[in-house]
Amino acid sequence: MHTKALLLASIPAATAAETILGAYIFSRHGDRTTKAYSPTKLTALGAEQVYLSGSWYRSRYIDEKSSTRINGISSDLADLTELAVTAPADNVLQGSAGFFLQGLYPPAGSVNSQKLANGTTIEAPLSGYQYIPVNSATVTSRGSNQAESSAWLQGNSGCPAAVNSSQAYFQSKEYLELLGSTKEFYQSLLPVYESTFPSESATFKNAYSIFDYIHVSTIHNASIPSSNLLTPSNLQTLSDLANIHEFGLGYNASSPIRAVAGSVLASHIVSTLNSSISSSSSQKLNIQFGPYGTFGSFFGLSQLPSVSPDFTAIVDYASSMTFELFTTSSSSSPSENEVSVRFLFANGTASDSNPAKVYPLFGQDKTELPWTTFVSEMNKIALEGGSKEWCDACGEKTGECADYYPAESAGVAAAAKSGSGMSNAVAGVIGAMVTLGVVLGLQALILGVGGLRLTKRRKQDPSEVFQVPAGKTSFSDTSSTQKA
């Protein structure tokens, strides 16, 4: 994402009468290895990127000397009642969250020590390292919970309607025109990536996968085949086409369910910030890590592309968006009418040279929204993961959604029972034997006809990674809420 200077963007500084009540940070992971070779791994560069971002947010929200410090938050030792940190069960996203937290709450030395009953003082290992747990994303992030090694946008969304909507993009006029008009361009770069992408795969259909492969190579590989073909102009074109491809898969104004990841995130943001207002809650800072696809989905839903077309681009590694809750009231328990929200975004690692800047949401002409207005606008796009509303919108009636449709579930069960005169026990035994027979038969077919033999697990062949799965139309990226 190449963010241009925007007139409305500025670095926010709290006024003397302003109090920060809480914040919600959503961050992309740091630099990683290519998705062409599974499993994807966080690199040392990626760890540094998110660590530095965490350090910047510490200087803004945690440091005692900061004018934008969250009111009452612990500055030296992390108070786990004040923090909530989540990331999908994925090594890149979980690892990124861990390094971010090292920057947010670095080792505290002797401050992080304990005096025992016998008078001995024990300092925590690693110079007082602070062990802040990163919770695995659960139903609260459903619709955006994807692994970084996956290349299919809606692969783990669990939302059939979102999958169908994204697949519809491959029948759109925009997609089909670009598929044809860019064919020669992708074929011209075949010498660069033909070891991973055969000629038939080197098309706009795999725009993101090709871009990701080249992007990672230019960062980490000192030698690239036919690198003379990777001119600045060609690299920019690869990036531009990937941006178009991914935004098309993640958002469509006429089919909002396509952006289900952004909708689920919106719901979580509102419920979390609401707890920061409540006097009964001590939670002040919520941090969630996820893929770039969630950024794009939320950007589309919140009308940020109308502020700048840059908001239709793939965000850089370690990018973060923040929702800051504040009040100008002197009351220790301000009412909802005395609370406002501002949205900040940093493309890439947040730092003094690249600070998070404020942008207006929902087509508003101001960057500070009254809490009630913010909630009203967010509720228009929000879907709570696993709720009845989510199940209806996604067209999902199985799994955890089955409880919302007892009549249909009962009908399916009754039909299954009436269709068989045998007992459940007998049916179970027969089913197991049939399944075993099919598995053994397929194994024999593969080993015999295919001439294959059993070996130890090997590294995944890149050509396999980009073979479109049955029932899917193409690949794209993920990172935990959509793509990473």
Automatic annotation (TrEMBL):
Compositional bias of kind Polar residues: 473-484
Region (Disordered): 461-484
Keywords annotated in UniProt: Membrane, Signal, Transmembrane, Transmembrane helix
GO MF, one example: phosphatase activity
TM helices/strands, residue ranges: 425-449
Signal peptide: 1-17
Coiled coil: none
Pfam families registered for this protein in UniProt: His_Phos_2 (PF00328)
Family: Belongs to the histidine acid phosphatase family.
Name of the protein in its database record: Phosphoglycerate mutase-like protein
